[in-house]
Amino acid sequence: MCGRFTLTLTQAQLEDYLKERYDIYNHSQFKLPRYNISPSNEVISVLHDGSKHRVGTLKWGFRPLYTTSNRPLEIINVKGETVFDKAIFKTSVLQRRCVILADSFYEWKSDKSDKNPYRFMTDQKVFPMAAIWQTVATPGGGKIHTVAIITTHNNDTLKGIHHRMPLILTKEDEKIWLNNKIKDIPTLKKLIKPYDDKLMHFEQVSSLVNNPRNDDISLIKKIN
Questions:
Q1: Residue 74 catalytic?
Q2: I want to staple 212 with a disulfide (CB 3.0 to 4.6 A). Which of 1, 12, 38, 43 is the partner?
């Protein structure tokens, strides 16, 4: 499960990161920093169009093509273990893979024994979370570009807190994930694994995170 995350870079820091990692020099301005990115928000995403990397925003909440305008189905997480088997995801996971940029994600104890979330970080200053996207029509005749985060089972860092985690990619695995010419399912399935727990750490932070309207630096202050 991944229901909240952060991207605490400034615009200038993001620009440097995009140049270094993806060779991206021209892009829109983004609302940064963000300390409490929530479902339905626009999230900064990177894809490869066959010739170069591109960055933009997608609405967090994947809408299958059959979704209705009255009550659209919006899926924020998709299990990596079954994403290749579900008809509503298969086309996207083979043709429309992307990553969502984050520098930490929040998780709460599965048993709900503690209202204060934990903030998880990695050895990467910014890490790519594997995702799939879909474009659907809107009632007014427009289009909306939607996205869901791929998840996998936890590693030792998350044990005792939550049994799922976002699929965080290494730089090498990200190259495979973003290459939509690769449609070999066994090759892609090898990427569905938890991030190395020795390269992760966490801190407990404020319960202010629980309210998605809160979005300031106080949310990431360590409390223990």
A1: no
A2: 38
Considering only CA atoms, which of 99, 174, 83 is closest in space to residue 131? Answer: 99
CA angle 58, 122, 15 (to 5 degrees): 50
For residue 172, indicate whether it is catalytic: no
d(C-alpha 154, C-alpha 160), whole Å: 10
Q: Give the Cα separation of 174 and 191 in Å (integer).
A: 9
Catalytic residue among 15, 81, 107, 174: 107
Tokens at 178, concatenated: 């973003």
Residue type, 38: S
The one catalytic residue among 2, 74, 98, 172: 2
Complete domains list, the chain, with CATH: 4-219 (3.90.1680.10)
| φ, ψ at 114 (rounded to 5°) | -145, 130
Nearest-angstrom CA–CA distance, 214 and 221: 13
Question: Which residue intervals of the chain are DSSP H helices?
Answer: 11-22, 87-95, 171-178, 185-189
d(CA 151, CA 224): 27
The overall pTM is greater than 0.90: yes
* Percentage helix, strand, coil for the chain under 3-state DSSP, each rounded to 5: 20, 35, 45
Q: Which residues partner with 62 through β-bridges?
A: 75
**Is the separation of the CB atoms in 202 and 118 below 8 Å?**
yes
